[in-house]
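Milestone M4 deliverable, item 7.
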Amino acid sequence: RVTAVSRGDGGFVVATEREQYRARSVLLAIGRRGTPRRLGIPGEELPKVVYRLLEPEQYRGQRVLVVGGGDSALEAALALAAQPRTEVLLSYRGEAFSRAKRENRERLQEAEAAGRLRVMLAATPIAIRSDSVEIESESGCKEIGNDVVIVCAGGILPTAFLRAAGVEIEVRHGGA
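Output delivered:
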């Protein structure tokens, strides 16, 4: 694991947890999402908790909770809802999906109206268990049967690391 990158004689010094390396150039490949944002609740370390949806088919016939309110959460919930016998619950702490694209919000409303998935707004998971999740909302706490939790709550960029390495960061909200 790289812990620091600094300028050295004619290049860079890359420090890892074990040793240091010299290089003429360095390519940082941190991914688009950085480190997935965690929920910080009991049970999040269980193997049934994942941070992105790769193959919706692998969850066919299961009870899936998707957590998040952005486009990735809505798109994951919709893809899962298209799988036969899959029970999908989308939980979001906000009152509305205001950050998601209009098209995704409309598709979600259609799927919910057709009974292909359920949506809980102003709701927050507070515990994950091997066969259930506990969700708190305005109406109280509910324990819901569950096989898989997919957290789509964004990522945390290593901003301090990048700045220390001399990378200029420009923050743009809503842009790619």
